[in-house]
Design a protein that fits this description.
two-stranded antiparallel sheet, 13 helices, alpha/beta, 40% helix, Aldolase_TIM, 12 strands, 8-stranded parallel sheet, single chain, binds ligand FNR
Length: 365
C-alpha cells in the first residue's frame, strides 16, 4: 500500500482488482456520465487565493457537526453493498471512520446490518441513510433500529424518487452476488434482488419497493417517528434547501448522488454557493461529489460547506485493505487538506474566508 499516495492511486488499483460487475456498479454515473466527469472537473474551475505570513504553526482541523465533535470536516457518504469491495464491507469502513474520529454513514442498502455496524464501531459517530419504502412499517422499523443502535442522525435521500439509469449496470444485468444480501432486511422479502431481469436488478428492486409518492409533507411523518436530526441528502437548488429548512431539516447535504441519478445536473460544487446563501445559519450545509483531493475540501469549505463527504474513495480504500485501506485514504486526504489549509494561511476551519476561493473568471477580467 506504501506506493499508493493519492486517492487516484487507490482508484487505479481498484480498477485493476475488482470484478467487472462490482467495478461498474461502483464507478458508474447515470446516462452519458457528463455530470460524473463534471463533478471532478468543476473543482478546477475554482482557484485558491492563499494568504501569507499568518503564523500557521498550530493547526486544528476539528469541528462540531450536529453537536458531535469530530477530528476533521471529511466524512464517509453512504454507498450500498460494500461487501463487494471487501468481505468486512461496511463494518471495516465504519471502524476506519472510528479510528480517524469522523462520521460514517450507513446505507439502507448495506450488506452489513445496522446492528453489526454498531457493534463493529461502537465509538464512531454513525449516521443512517434512509430510503422510504412503500411499506411504511418496514421503514419505521429501520428508523427505530438505527436510533436504538446509537446512530446520531438520519440522512434522508431525497434525490431518488426513481433510480437513475446507469447503463453499465443495465448491460451487466447487475445483481448482488449470491453469497451476499441486503442485511437490514434479513428474513423479509426485501432482502435480495430478482435474478430474472433484463435490466439492472437494483433498479427493478428499487422501483418495486421504494415509495415514489414521497412529498415534503412526509418529512413531518419522519419527524413524528424519530427524535434524531434529519439531514436531507441530494439537494441541488436553493428552493429545495429553503423548503428543507422550513420542513425542519437540521442539515442539507448538497449532492447529486455521485452523478448517479440524472445526467446533466450541476456538479455539487457548482450548486453549493446558491444553497449556502439561501440556508445561511438556519441549518448546517455539507457537500459530497467528486472530492478526491484535500484542496477540494478547502474550496468546498470556503464556498459555504461545513463539512464534506466522500463515497467512492472509501470504496477504493476498502478494496485495497479493508479498514486499513480506508484509514489510509482518509489519512491522505486529511494531510492534503491540512497542508492546503496551512499554506493558504489558516490554522482553524474558522479562519477560512470566502475570499480565499474565486471562480476562474476572476482572473480573466
Ligand atoms: C452511492 N450513493 C448512495 N447514496 C445514498 O443516499 N444511498 C446509497 O445507498 C448510495 N449508494 C451508492 C453506491 C455507490 C457505489 C456510489 C458510488 C454512490 C451516493 C453517495 O452517497 C454519494 O452521494 C456519492 O458517492 C458522492 O460522490 P463521490 O464521493 O463518490 O464522488
Amino acid at each position: 500500500m506504501s506506493n499508493l499516495v493519492s486517492i487516484r492511486d487507490f482508484e487505479e488499483h481498484a480498477y485493476k482488482t475488482l470484478p467487472r460487475n462490482a467495478l461498474d456498479y461502483y464507478r458508474s454515473g447515470a446516462g452519458q456520465q457528463t455530470t460524473l466527469k463534471h463533478n471532478r472537473q468543476a473543482f478546477s474551475k475554482y482557484r485558491l487565493r492563499p494568504r501569507c505570513l499568518r503564523n500557521v504553526e498550530n493547526r486544528d482541523l476539528s469541528t462540531t457537526i450536529l453537536g458531535e465533535r469530530i477530528t476533521m470536516p471529511i466524512g464517509i457518504s453512504p454507498t450500498a453493498m460494500q461487501k463487494m469491495a471487501h468481505p468486512e464491507g461496511e463494518c471495516a469502513n465504519a471502524r476506519a471512520a472510528q479510528a480517524m474520529g469522523t462520521i460514517f454513514t450507513l446505507s439502507t442498502l448495506s450488506t452489513s446490518s445496522i446492528e453489526e455496524v454498531a457493534q463493529a464501531a461502537p465509538r464512531a459517530v454513525k449516521w443512517f441513510q434512509l430510503y422510504i419504502y412503500k411499506d411504511r412499517e418496514l421503514t419505521r422499523q429501520l428508523v427505530e433500529r438505527a436510533e436504538r443502535a446509537g446512530f446520531k442522525a438520519l440522512v434522508l435521500t431525497v434525490d431518488a424518487p426513481l433510480f437513475g439509469l446507469r447503463l453499465a449496470d443495465i448491460k451487466n444485468r447487475f445483481i448482488l452476488p449470491p453469497h451476499l444480501c441486503l442485511a437490514n432486511f434479513e428474513g423479509t422479502k426485501s432482502k435480495g434482488m430478482s435474478k430474472k431481469t433484463d435490466s439492472s436488478g437494483l433498479n427493478v428492486y428499487v422501483n418495486s419497493l421504494f415509495d415514489s409518492t414521497v412529498e415534503w409533507k412526509d418529512i413531518a411523518w419522519l419527524k413524528s417517528i424519530t427524535s434524531l436530526p434529519i439531514v436531507l441528502k441530494g439537494i441541488l437548488t436553493a428552493e429545495d434547501a429553503v423548503l428543507g429548512v422550513q420542513n425542519g431539516a437540521s442539515a442539507i447535504l448538497v449532492s447529486n448522488h455521485g452523478a448517479r441519478q440524472v445526467d446533466g445536473t450541476p456538479a455539487s460544487i457548482e450548486a453549493l454557493p446558491e444553497i449556502a446563501r439561501a440556508v445561511g445559519d438556519r441549518a448546517e450545509v455539507y457537500l459530497d461529489g467528486g472530492i478526491t483531493d484535500g484542496t477540494e475540501v478547502l474550496k468546498a469549505l470556503a464556498m459555504g460547506a461545513k463539512m464534506v463527504f466522500m463515497g467512492r474513495p472509501a470504496l477504493w480504500g476498502l478494496v485495497q485493505g479493508g479498514e486499513d485501506g480506508v484509514k489510509k485514504v482518509l489519512t491522505i486526504i486529511r494531510t492534503e487538506f491540512e497542508t492546503a489549509l496551512g499554506i493558504c494561511g489558516c490554522c482553524r476551519l474558522s479562519d477560512i474566508e470566502p475570499t480565499m476561493v474565486v471562480h476562474e473568471s476572476f482572473y480573466a477580467k
